[in-house]
Amino acid sequence: MTENCLFLIIKQRRSHPWKFLLSYENESERTTLLGDTRNQKEQSSREGDPSGKRITIGSYKGNIVTVKHILKKHVEINRSLKKQLQIRKELNHDNINRFIGACMEPPHIYILTQYCQRGSLEDILQNDDIHLDDMFVASLVSDLIKGMIFIHESEIVTHGNLKSSNCLVDSRWVLQIADFGFQQLKSDRSASLTDIQKHYKNIAWKAPELLRDMNRDPRGTQKGDVYSFALVLYDIIGRKGPWGVTGYSYKEIVDKVKSRTEHDVFRPELSFLSCEPFVKQCLMECWCEDPEQRPDFKFIRYRLKPLQAGLNSNILDNMIAMMEKYAHNLEGLVAERTEQLSEEKKMTENLLLRMLPRFVADQLKRGKPVAPETFDSVTCYFSDIVGFTALSADSTPFEIVCMLNDLYTYFDSIADNYDAYKVETIGDAYFVVSGLPIRNGDLHAGEIASMSLELLDAIRKFKIRHKPHETLKLRIGIHSGPCVAGVVGLRMPRYTLFGDTVNTASRMETTGVPLKIHCSAECRAILKKLGGYTLSERGYVKMKGKGELLTYFLEEEDSSTRIRRLSDVKSSLLNKTQSGSILGPKLVAGDTGCDKNSNCSGYWSAEVPPTPTLDKNLTPCDSQTNIGLEYLAVNPLSRTSLWSTSHSENSNHVSGDHFNDSSSPTVLGHCMEDMLWNNVLYEDCEDTVNEDSTYSLVTMSEDVETSPEYIHLLDMFTSNTQDCIKDGATMEMV
Ligand SMILES: Nc1nc2c(ncn2[C@@H]2O[C@H](COP(=O)(O)OP(=O)(O)OP(=O)(O)O)[C@@H](O)[C@H]2O)c(=O)[nH]1
Ligand SMILES: [Mg+2]
């Protein structure tokens, strides 16, 4: 409905007051459209409705009304129509949907009626979230019967179109019968296929004698209304539509109802309906083939009286009870939906974390911009499958997708073990970087080099599902240098890298050799500095835009060097923490008391991102020398440890170790290990300086685990790590 139409209603009323029952006093009381009773999708699907109507919500004289647009090319406004409208307007009953007014200026034909907040009975019955117990059923049926008795006793005499969609329910759960009284205002029927199906759905509520009568009066008959009532009742109780689950189309149902056989009539199936026998009896009487045998509504009311047994005699009490039940139902629904929402949220967050580094995702979630950052030194890895185009030509798209999925899932699991960030896969290309978003000194080159060697090893073992006898060949290029990283795009934000380093790394891959790691001179220089890597000179390679560059092949590594390197880094970081320099409070529990002489295990902590959380799967330490009780909490983003407890064969913590209530988990862990592995007990000795309890080794014991000292230590350990485990991480022994 457009502004024009509304204007038309008003203007026309001025010139032809008889045409309209719509009244208005001043401009502010114009009818204003507010929206649709259904969502947009359903609304548009109704464009081709056989009844040619559209339902809209409007405001009239400050009240919300339903505005029904009737698509009709011509209406003859004669005495009979005017009388019908007048009669309908004067009908007033709690269970009758109030008619407010109409506009009759084709093509602008609108009917305004009282708006019912809960929609139609059909909407409610189809909504599985709304639980209707016996009380609701009794109340709705009682309202329907009361409304029908009123219509049948009124000047209008019949409804003629009784069905669930014409029973509306208001906010107080009162049922109101709608859409009766103006037969001339039926829309012109169109004849498209979907319209025909909808037409059959509409007439499936009609009695057989009316279906068979080609010239049936649109006003129907009272006995016909009783038949339709039976289908509405069946719908209310079964909640599977007026005909239940039949497997027939509405056209087939209508044809079956129309066809007359001696004793066999087609009706909805009663056997699956769970209700009292008197209700089934009433249904059968109401849809009796012989209209004369059908009861009238007063008799139906009598027949169904036992249904009202659970209802209160006071209408208001009933209403309040129903509203309370509905509110309770809603509470349950809200709880259920909240649970679903939080599950969805978790899934979305996980998805986001797969696409973006955690701190970037956190920033974006808070609506904060992520400023682009320059990184002085990172190492980029590019790899490509040799002969991928030929392989694709020889495989189905499905096989290719499966293969790439298998391969990159495998690769991802390997890359996860390094301080590396997978930037993206582009077709068959795999792009990983180390040294960002969290800087790691010079370690990036080592992390990428070690990862490259492991990936190369993996590709040799990788089985192609659809070509089990073939193997894939990878061409790998690595290069180190500065770059800029930032988030690009709002719609599909990506944490992306820019700069010549990325281009050069990509060129290193394209000019590489199958099953070889092509390494630039810059990367090689860092690897040499780190130590443990064997490289061979490849010679000068021509590279687009760069001339001839001396390049290398990374051949192998001594893995123990990497482990040692990482341990050293950890120790040095811990020392820095002691002097309060770079890590600050973000390093969980500070690790300040780590025994510098102990051989720290093979994981390390480079830099801790702004909001570290613990990985649920605590990772075992690499070091072969570790024995016994060991805890390791890992930052899931960089796979770096936040803290660990370790016990090494070579070290002896026992002598001189002491701790107090505020010691870090690392120190407490060490002491626990000592107690268990060396059967020693620490005992409380007052620290007079700090007025604190300090524990030192005093005695040997066989029952350390059950000793009060050990249990106290365990308590301290647990409470000191509470912050870490409250996020859901579990502490595990490895
Ligand atoms: N919430 C709300 N929805 C309404 C109201 N009136 C109608 N509707 C919705 O509009 C739908 C279609 O109503 P109609 O256009 O009358 O269509 P119908 O009842 O299927 O067909 P006929 O009455 O035979 O023309 C109903 O099922 C309701 O979902 C109302 O007052 N409130
Ligand atoms: Mg209707």
TrEMBL record:
<dbReference type="InterPro" id="IPR001054">
    <property type="entry name" value="A/G_cyclase"/>
</dbReference>
<keyword id="KW-0141">cGMP biosynthesis</keyword>
<feature type="compositionally biased region" description="Basic and acidic residues">
    <location>
        <begin position="38"/>
        <end position="52"/>
    </location>
</feature>
<keyword id="KW-0472">Membrane</keyword>
<keyword id="KW-0342">GTP-binding</keyword>
<feature type="domain" description="Guanylate cyclase">
    <location>
        <begin position="379"/>
        <end position="509"/>
    </location>
</feature>
<dbReference type="InterPro" id="IPR001245">
    <property type="entry name" value="Ser-Thr/Tyr_kinase_cat_dom"/>
</dbReference>
<dbReference type="GO" id="GO:0016020">
    <property type="term" value="C:membrane"/>
</dbReference>
<feature type="domain" description="Protein kinase">
    <location>
        <begin position="41"/>
        <end position="311"/>
    </location>
</feature>
<feature type="region of interest" description="Disordered">
    <location>
        <begin position="32"/>
        <end position="53"/>
    </location>
</feature>
<keyword id="KW-0732">Signal</keyword>
<keyword id="KW-1133">Transmembrane helix</keyword>
<dbReference type="InterPro" id="IPR029787">
    <property type="entry name" value="Nucleotide_cyclase"/>
</dbReference>
<keyword id="KW-0547">Nucleotide-binding</keyword>
<comment type="similarity">
    <text>Belongs to the adenylyl cyclase class-4/guanylyl cyclase family.</text>
</comment>
<keyword id="KW-0675">Receptor</keyword>
<keyword id="KW-0325">Glycoprotein</keyword>
<dbReference type="Pfam" id="PF00211">
    <property type="entry name" value="Guanylate_cyc"/>
</dbReference>
<protein>
    <recommendedName>
        <fullName>Guanylate cyclase</fullName>
        <ecNumber>4.6.1.2</ecNumber>
    </recommendedName>
</protein>
<keyword id="KW-0456">Lyase</keyword>
<dbReference type="InterPro" id="IPR018297">
    <property type="entry name" value="A/G_cyclase_CS"/>
</dbReference>
<dbReference type="InterPro" id="IPR000719">
    <property type="entry name" value="Prot_kinase_dom"/>
</dbReference>
<dbReference type="InterPro" id="IPR011009">
    <property type="entry name" value="Kinase-like_dom_sf"/>
</dbReference>
<dbReference type="Pfam" id="PF07714">
    <property type="entry name" value="PK_Tyr_Ser-Thr"/>
</dbReference>
<keyword id="KW-0812">Transmembrane</keyword>
<dbReference type="GO" id="GO:0005525">
    <property type="term" value="F:GTP binding"/>
</dbReference>
<dbReference type="InterPro" id="IPR050401">
    <property type="entry name" value="Cyclic_nucleotide_synthase"/>
</dbReference>
<dbReference type="GO" id="GO:0004383">
    <property type="term" value="F:guanylate cyclase activity"/>
</dbReference>
